[in-house]
Amino acid sequence: MASSKKYRHVLWGTAGLVALALLLPASPGCGEHEGRPALTKNAVPLAELPEPVSKAAARTLRGVKIDEAWKNFDRDGKLQSYEIRGRAASNGKIREVRVSTTGEILEEE
After folding, report:
1. Angstrom distance (rounded) from CA 82 to CA 94
2. The pTM is what?
3. Domains recognised in the chain with CATH numbers
4. Dihedral (C-alpha) 61, 65, 68, 72: value to the nearest 10 degrees?
5. Of 10, 26, 75, 82, which alpha carbon lies 20 to 30 A from 32's?
6. What is the pLDDT of residues 39-98, one digit of tens each?
7. Other CB atoms closer than 10 Å to residue 55's CB: what's the count?
8. Using CA atoms in the order 6, 8, 14, 20, what is the torsion angle rounded to 10 degrees?
């Protein structure tokens, strides 16, 4: 009799896992959003960065060889900021800075 209780417990546990596995794909994911994303990034050539933006990035990322840049647009397509990235010559780490359209540093990594 003890063994039949044991198997009943195993069967209910297995049934629960099967039910969960069937329900999860149908549930909305936490990464899904309605509408457009908050920011859209578009690559921009370094030569096309506005002077206040490139100067602010160079000042903040001293010793970094800047090699990538993006324009960040909001949901309405309005330019919000620039992201500029490069690699530090001293230790090879990637550094990144987000700069407003007027040259204010918004974020640094």
Report:
1. 16
2. 0.65
3. 40-108 (3.10.450.360)
4. 10
5. 82
6. 799 999 999 999 999 999 999 999 999 999 999 999 999 999 999 999 999 999 999 999
7. 13
8. -130
